[in-house]
Amino acid sequence: MPKITFSNKNHLFFQSVKNSVEDYFQNNRLKKTGNWKLYVKALILIPLAVAIYCWLLFGNYSWPVGIILSGLFGFTLVCIAFNVMHDACHGSYSGKKWVNEFMGLSMNILGSNAFLWKIKHNIIHHTYTNIEGVDDDIANGPLLRQCITQKWMPIHRYQFIYMFILYSVSTLAWMWGTDFHKYFSKKIHTTVIKKINAGQHIMFWVSKMLYIFFYVVVPVCFLGWQAWLTGFLILHITMGLVLSVVFQLAHVVEKTSFDSVAKENKVIASEWAIHEVKTTADFAPKNKVISWLVGGLNFQIEHHLFPQISHIHYPALSKIIRKQCELFGLPYNYYPTLRQAIYSHVQLMKQLGRRNHQ
Length: 358
Prior knowledge:
The chain has 358 residues and is mainly α. Helices cover 61% and strands 5% of the residues.
Protein backbone atom coordinates (compact mmCIF):
# COMPACT_ATOMS: atom_id res chain seq x y z
CA MET A 1 0.00 0.00 0.00
CA PRO A 2 1.40 3.44 -0.91
CA LYS A 3 1.80 5.95 1.88
CA ILE A 4 -0.89 8.63 1.98
CA THR A 5 -0.51 11.70 4.13
CA PHE A 6 -2.78 14.68 4.74
CA SER A 7 -1.72 18.30 5.15
CA ASN A 8 -2.63 18.38 8.84
CA LYS A 9 0.02 20.84 10.01
CA ASN A 10 -2.46 23.71 10.26
CA HIS A 11 -5.64 21.77 10.95
CA LEU A 12 -7.59 24.89 11.83
CA PHE A 13 -10.94 23.59 10.61
CA PHE A 14 -10.95 20.39 12.63
CA GLN A 15 -9.62 22.12 15.73
CA SER A 16 -12.41 24.68 15.51
CA VAL A 17 -15.04 21.97 15.01
CA LYS A 18 -13.68 19.90 17.90
CA ASN A 19 -13.72 22.89 20.22
CA SER A 20 -17.34 23.65 19.35
CA VAL A 21 -18.37 20.03 19.81
CA GLU A 22 -16.56 19.79 23.14
CA ASP A 23 -18.34 22.93 24.32
CA TYR A 24 -21.67 21.36 23.35
CA PHE A 25 -21.08 18.25 25.45
CA GLN A 26 -19.67 20.16 28.42
CA ASN A 27 -22.39 22.82 28.45
CA ASN A 28 -25.13 20.19 28.24
CA ARG A 29 -23.34 17.77 30.60
CA LEU A 30 -23.67 14.90 28.16
CA LYS A 31 -21.62 11.78 27.62
CA LYS A 32 -20.43 11.13 24.08
CA THR A 33 -21.44 7.48 24.19
CA GLY A 34 -24.92 5.99 24.00
CA ASN A 35 -27.71 6.57 26.51
CA TRP A 36 -31.21 5.20 27.05
CA LYS A 37 -32.25 6.25 23.53
CA LEU A 38 -29.67 3.86 22.08
CA TYR A 39 -30.24 1.08 24.59
CA VAL A 40 -33.99 1.11 23.93
CA LYS A 41 -33.20 0.45 20.27
CA ALA A 42 -31.21 -2.63 21.23
CA LEU A 43 -33.99 -3.79 23.55
CA ILE A 44 -36.49 -3.49 20.70
CA LEU A 45 -34.50 -4.75 17.71
CA ILE A 46 -32.67 -7.75 19.16
CA PRO A 47 -35.75 -9.41 20.78
CA LEU A 48 -37.71 -8.62 17.60
CA ALA A 49 -35.14 -10.46 15.48
CA VAL A 50 -35.23 -13.46 17.83
CA ALA A 51 -39.05 -13.47 17.78
CA ILE A 52 -39.23 -13.40 13.98
CA TYR A 53 -36.61 -16.16 13.75
CA CYS A 54 -38.61 -18.37 16.11
CA TRP A 55 -41.87 -17.57 14.33
CA LEU A 56 -40.32 -18.58 11.01
CA LEU A 57 -39.23 -21.90 12.52
CA PHE A 58 -42.23 -22.83 14.63
CA GLY A 59 -45.11 -20.67 13.46
CA ASN A 60 -48.07 -21.71 11.36
CA TYR A 61 -48.31 -19.37 8.36
CA SER A 62 -48.87 -19.33 4.59
CA TRP A 63 -46.03 -18.93 2.10
CA PRO A 64 -46.81 -15.22 1.39
CA VAL A 65 -46.54 -14.52 5.11
CA GLY A 66 -43.29 -16.49 5.17
CA ILE A 67 -41.86 -14.28 2.44
CA ILE A 68 -42.89 -11.13 4.30
CA LEU A 69 -41.43 -12.46 7.55
CA SER A 70 -38.15 -13.34 5.85
CA GLY A 71 -37.87 -9.82 4.45
CA LEU A 72 -38.77 -8.32 7.82
CA PHE A 73 -36.17 -10.53 9.49
CA GLY A 74 -33.51 -9.28 7.08
CA PHE A 75 -34.55 -5.67 7.61
CA THR A 76 -34.44 -6.09 11.40
CA LEU A 77 -30.94 -7.60 11.21
CA VAL A 78 -29.81 -4.63 9.12
CA CYS A 79 -31.24 -2.24 11.71
CA ILE A 80 -29.26 -4.09 14.40
CA ALA A 81 -26.14 -3.61 12.28
CA PHE A 82 -26.86 0.10 11.86
CA ASN A 83 -27.90 0.85 15.43
CA VAL A 84 -26.02 -1.60 17.66
CA MET A 85 -23.06 -3.14 15.85
CA HIS A 86 -21.91 0.05 14.18
CA ASP A 87 -21.75 2.13 17.37
CA ALA A 88 -20.24 -0.75 19.33
CA CYS A 89 -17.47 -1.43 16.80
CA HIS A 90 -16.60 2.27 16.87
CA GLY A 91 -16.46 2.20 20.67
CA SER A 92 -19.35 4.64 21.04
CA TYR A 93 -22.11 2.30 22.24
CA SER A 94 -20.88 2.41 25.84
CA GLY A 95 -18.13 3.96 27.91
CA LYS A 96 -17.06 0.44 28.90
CA LYS A 97 -14.75 -1.32 26.47
CA TRP A 98 -16.03 -4.81 27.23
CA VAL A 99 -19.60 -3.75 26.48
CA ASN A 100 -18.53 -2.37 23.11
CA GLU A 101 -16.59 -5.55 22.34
CA PHE A 102 -19.52 -7.74 23.31
CA MET A 103 -22.16 -5.77 21.40
CA GLY A 104 -19.81 -5.49 18.44
CA LEU A 105 -20.00 -9.27 18.10
CA SER A 106 -23.50 -8.75 16.74
CA MET A 107 -21.63 -8.41 13.44
CA ASN A 108 -20.58 -12.05 13.79
CA ILE A 109 -24.18 -13.03 14.53
CA LEU A 110 -25.16 -11.38 11.26
CA GLY A 111 -22.70 -13.66 9.46
CA SER A 112 -19.62 -11.49 9.05
CA ASN A 113 -16.65 -10.76 11.32
CA ALA A 114 -16.22 -7.76 13.64
CA PHE A 115 -12.42 -7.96 13.65
CA LEU A 116 -12.10 -7.74 9.86
CA TRP A 117 -14.85 -5.13 9.65
CA LYS A 118 -13.10 -2.82 12.12
CA ILE A 119 -9.97 -2.83 9.97
CA LYS A 120 -11.91 -2.37 6.74
CA HIS A 121 -14.28 0.28 8.05
CA ASN A 122 -12.83 2.01 11.11
CA ILE A 123 -9.23 2.22 9.91
CA ILE A 124 -9.17 2.11 6.11
CA HIS A 125 -12.50 3.64 5.09
CA HIS A 126 -12.60 6.32 7.76
CA THR A 127 -9.03 7.40 7.09
CA TYR A 128 -8.91 7.17 3.29
CA THR A 129 -12.52 7.84 2.34
CA ASN A 130 -13.18 7.74 -1.41
CA ILE A 131 -9.50 7.35 -2.25
CA GLU A 132 -9.49 4.84 -5.08
CA GLY A 133 -6.71 2.31 -4.68
CA VAL A 134 -7.07 2.17 -0.89
CA ASP A 135 -10.71 2.53 0.21
CA ASP A 136 -12.21 -0.94 -0.03
CA ASP A 137 -15.74 0.48 -0.02
CA ILE A 138 -15.35 1.74 -3.60
CA ALA A 139 -13.46 -1.36 -4.76
CA ASN A 140 -16.45 -3.50 -5.63
CA GLY A 141 -15.05 -5.39 -8.57
CA PRO A 142 -14.89 -4.68 -12.31
CA LEU A 143 -18.67 -4.59 -12.82
CA LEU A 144 -19.07 -1.36 -10.85
CA ARG A 145 -17.26 1.85 -11.77
CA GLN A 146 -17.67 4.21 -8.81
CA CYS A 147 -15.14 6.92 -9.63
CA ILE A 148 -13.55 8.28 -12.80
CA THR A 149 -10.11 6.82 -12.10
CA GLN A 150 -11.45 3.26 -12.27
CA LYS A 151 -11.19 1.51 -15.62
CA TRP A 152 -14.18 1.90 -17.90
CA MET A 153 -15.76 -1.12 -19.61
CA PRO A 154 -18.69 -1.20 -22.08
CA ILE A 155 -20.91 -3.01 -19.56
CA HIS A 156 -20.73 0.03 -17.28
CA ARG A 157 -23.26 1.75 -19.55
CA TYR A 158 -25.90 -0.32 -17.77
CA GLN A 159 -24.48 -0.29 -14.25
CA PHE A 160 -27.11 2.17 -13.02
CA ILE A 161 -29.63 -0.61 -13.68
CA TYR A 162 -27.87 -3.83 -12.73
CA MET A 163 -26.11 -2.33 -9.70
CA PHE A 164 -29.22 -3.03 -7.63
CA ILE A 165 -28.97 -6.72 -8.49
CA LEU A 166 -25.36 -6.70 -7.31
CA TYR A 167 -26.37 -4.84 -4.16
CA SER A 168 -28.98 -7.50 -3.42
CA VAL A 169 -26.35 -10.28 -3.33
CA SER A 170 -23.67 -8.20 -1.59
CA THR A 171 -24.12 -9.70 1.87
CA LEU A 172 -23.97 -13.22 0.45
CA ALA A 173 -20.74 -12.35 -1.33
CA TRP A 174 -19.46 -10.56 1.75
CA MET A 175 -20.14 -13.35 4.26
CA TRP A 176 -19.28 -16.30 2.05
CA GLY A 177 -16.65 -14.81 -0.23
CA THR A 178 -14.80 -11.63 0.67
CA ASP A 179 -14.57 -12.42 4.39
CA PHE A 180 -12.68 -15.60 3.58
CA HIS A 181 -10.55 -13.86 0.95
CA LYS A 182 -9.51 -11.21 3.47
CA TYR A 183 -8.89 -13.84 6.13
CA PHE A 184 -6.69 -16.13 4.05
CA SER A 185 -4.88 -13.41 2.10
CA LYS A 186 -4.45 -11.28 5.23
CA LYS A 187 -5.20 -8.31 3.06
CA ILE A 188 -8.08 -5.86 2.66
CA HIS A 189 -7.82 -4.48 -0.86
CA THR A 190 -4.28 -3.01 -0.81
CA THR A 191 -3.86 -2.93 2.98
CA VAL A 192 -2.06 -5.79 4.71
CA ILE A 193 -3.56 -7.18 7.94
CA LYS A 194 -0.48 -7.23 10.14
CA LYS A 195 -1.64 -9.72 12.74
CA ILE A 196 -4.55 -12.02 13.52
CA ASN A 197 -4.13 -13.47 17.01
CA ALA A 198 -5.28 -16.93 18.13
CA GLY A 199 -8.46 -15.59 19.69
CA GLN A 200 -9.50 -13.91 16.45
CA HIS A 201 -8.78 -17.08 14.47
CA ILE A 202 -11.02 -19.06 16.82
CA MET A 203 -13.73 -16.39 16.75
CA PHE A 204 -13.71 -16.32 12.96
CA TRP A 205 -14.26 -20.05 12.53
CA VAL A 206 -16.64 -20.54 15.47
CA SER A 207 -18.81 -17.64 14.26
CA LYS A 208 -18.99 -18.98 10.73
CA MET A 209 -19.89 -22.46 11.98
CA LEU A 210 -22.57 -21.11 14.30
CA TYR A 211 -23.99 -19.04 11.47
CA ILE A 212 -24.26 -22.13 9.28
CA PHE A 213 -25.88 -24.03 12.14
CA PHE A 214 -28.54 -21.43 13.02
CA TYR A 215 -29.19 -19.98 9.56
CA VAL A 216 -28.87 -23.14 7.46
CA VAL A 217 -28.94 -26.43 9.38
CA VAL A 218 -31.72 -25.61 11.86
CA PRO A 219 -34.09 -24.01 9.30
CA VAL A 220 -33.57 -26.87 6.83
CA CYS A 221 -34.41 -29.39 9.54
CA PHE A 222 -37.63 -27.59 10.53
CA LEU A 223 -38.79 -26.18 7.19
CA GLY A 224 -37.18 -28.25 4.46
CA TRP A 225 -34.53 -27.05 2.04
CA GLN A 226 -36.90 -25.37 -0.44
CA ALA A 227 -38.64 -23.18 2.13
CA TRP A 228 -35.28 -22.45 3.77
CA LEU A 229 -33.62 -21.45 0.50
CA THR A 230 -36.47 -19.13 -0.43
CA GLY A 231 -36.44 -17.44 2.97
CA PHE A 232 -32.64 -17.30 3.11
CA LEU A 233 -32.40 -15.59 -0.28
CA ILE A 234 -35.12 -13.06 0.61
CA LEU A 235 -33.34 -12.39 3.89
CA HIS A 236 -30.07 -11.60 2.11
CA ILE A 237 -31.66 -9.68 -0.76
CA THR A 238 -33.24 -7.40 1.84
CA MET A 239 -30.05 -7.05 3.83
CA GLY A 240 -27.88 -6.48 0.78
CA LEU A 241 -30.12 -3.85 -0.78
CA VAL A 242 -30.65 -1.84 2.40
CA LEU A 243 -27.04 -1.98 3.56
CA SER A 244 -25.61 -1.14 0.15
CA VAL A 245 -27.98 1.71 -0.61
CA VAL A 246 -27.48 3.40 2.77
CA PHE A 247 -23.69 3.24 2.54
CA GLN A 248 -23.61 4.28 -1.13
CA LEU A 249 -25.69 7.36 -0.39
CA ALA A 250 -23.03 8.50 2.05
CA HIS A 251 -20.19 8.72 -0.46
CA VAL A 252 -21.10 7.76 -4.03
CA VAL A 253 -23.35 10.66 -4.98
CA GLU A 254 -22.93 13.69 -7.23
CA LYS A 255 -21.92 16.15 -4.53
CA THR A 256 -19.05 14.12 -3.05
CA SER A 257 -15.48 14.18 -4.32
CA PHE A 258 -13.00 11.39 -5.00
CA ASP A 259 -9.26 10.96 -5.12
CA SER A 260 -6.93 8.16 -6.16
CA VAL A 261 -3.50 6.74 -5.48
CA ALA A 262 -1.44 4.31 -7.52
CA LYS A 263 1.95 2.93 -6.56
CA GLU A 264 3.58 6.20 -5.57
CA ASN A 265 3.20 7.88 -2.19
CA LYS A 266 0.73 10.74 -2.15
CA VAL A 267 0.12 13.89 -0.14
CA ILE A 268 -3.49 15.09 0.04
CA ALA A 269 -3.56 18.88 -0.25
CA SER A 270 -6.11 19.40 2.54
CA GLU A 271 -6.27 18.39 6.16
CA TRP A 272 -7.95 15.07 6.91
CA ALA A 273 -11.16 16.62 8.26
CA ILE A 274 -11.68 18.73 5.14
CA HIS A 275 -11.14 15.64 3.01
CA GLU A 276 -13.86 13.86 4.99
CA VAL A 277 -16.30 16.71 4.57
CA LYS A 278 -15.75 16.83 0.80
CA THR A 279 -16.06 13.07 0.30
CA THR A 280 -19.15 12.54 2.45
CA ALA A 281 -22.83 13.49 2.32
CA ASP A 282 -25.83 13.49 4.63
CA PHE A 283 -29.34 12.61 3.54
CA ALA A 284 -32.86 13.04 4.93
CA PRO A 285 -31.57 14.81 8.07
CA LYS A 286 -35.03 15.91 9.19
CA ASN A 287 -36.65 12.51 8.76
CA LYS A 288 -36.71 11.09 12.28
CA VAL A 289 -38.02 7.68 11.18
CA ILE A 290 -35.13 7.17 8.76
CA SER A 291 -32.66 8.46 11.35
CA TRP A 292 -33.98 5.98 13.90
CA LEU A 293 -33.90 3.01 11.52
CA VAL A 294 -30.46 3.62 9.99
CA GLY A 295 -28.77 4.43 13.27
CA GLY A 296 -27.96 8.01 12.34
CA LEU A 297 -26.00 6.93 9.28
CA ASN A 298 -27.88 9.56 7.30
CA PHE A 299 -25.62 11.97 9.25
CA GLN A 300 -22.45 10.67 7.64
CA ILE A 301 -20.46 13.92 7.82
CA GLU A 302 -20.93 13.98 11.58
CA HIS A 303 -20.07 10.30 11.83
CA HIS A 304 -16.88 10.60 9.78
CA LEU A 305 -15.59 13.54 11.77
CA PHE A 306 -16.54 12.01 15.13
CA PRO A 307 -16.86 8.22 14.76
CA GLN A 308 -16.36 7.64 18.48
CA ILE A 309 -19.41 9.72 19.36
CA SER A 310 -22.70 7.80 19.41
CA HIS A 311 -25.11 8.43 16.56
CA ILE A 312 -27.83 9.63 18.94
CA HIS A 313 -25.93 12.95 19.15
CA TYR A 314 -25.55 13.49 15.40
CA PRO A 315 -28.67 15.64 14.80
CA ALA A 316 -27.36 18.16 17.33
CA LEU A 317 -23.80 17.98 16.00
CA SER A 318 -24.98 18.56 12.44
CA LYS A 319 -26.00 22.13 13.32
CA ILE A 320 -22.56 22.80 14.78
CA ILE A 321 -20.65 21.27 11.87
CA ARG A 322 -22.76 22.99 9.23
CA LYS A 323 -22.06 26.35 10.85
CA GLN A 324 -18.32 25.58 10.97
CA CYS A 325 -18.34 24.60 7.29
CA GLU A 326 -19.93 27.95 6.46
CA LEU A 327 -17.29 29.80 8.49
CA PHE A 328 -14.46 28.04 6.65
CA GLY A 329 -16.07 28.22 3.23
CA LEU A 330 -16.45 24.47 2.93
CA PRO A 331 -19.29 22.54 1.31
CA TYR A 332 -21.74 20.77 3.56
CA ASN A 333 -23.04 18.05 1.27
CA TYR A 334 -26.56 16.88 2.00
CA TYR A 335 -29.77 15.80 0.31
CA PRO A 336 -33.02 16.84 2.00
CA THR A 337 -34.79 13.56 1.26
CA LEU A 338 -33.95 9.89 0.78
CA ARG A 339 -35.46 10.00 -2.70
CA GLN A 340 -33.18 12.84 -3.77
CA ALA A 341 -30.11 11.01 -2.46
CA ILE A 342 -31.03 7.80 -4.29
CA TYR A 343 -31.65 9.79 -7.48
CA SER A 344 -28.23 11.42 -7.16
CA HIS A 345 -26.54 8.05 -6.68
CA VAL A 346 -28.26 6.66 -9.79
CA GLN A 347 -27.32 9.74 -11.79
CA LEU A 348 -23.66 9.53 -10.77
CA MET A 349 -23.48 5.83 -11.62
CA LYS A 350 -25.11 6.62 -14.96
CA GLN A 351 -22.51 9.33 -15.65
CA LEU A 352 -19.63 7.02 -14.68
CA GLY A 353 -21.03 4.44 -17.06
CA ARG A 354 -20.38 6.69 -20.04
CA ARG A 355 -17.14 6.17 -21.90
CA ASN A 356 -16.47 9.88 -22.25
CA HIS A 357 -16.85 10.46 -18.51
CA GLN A 358 -13.14 10.13 -17.76
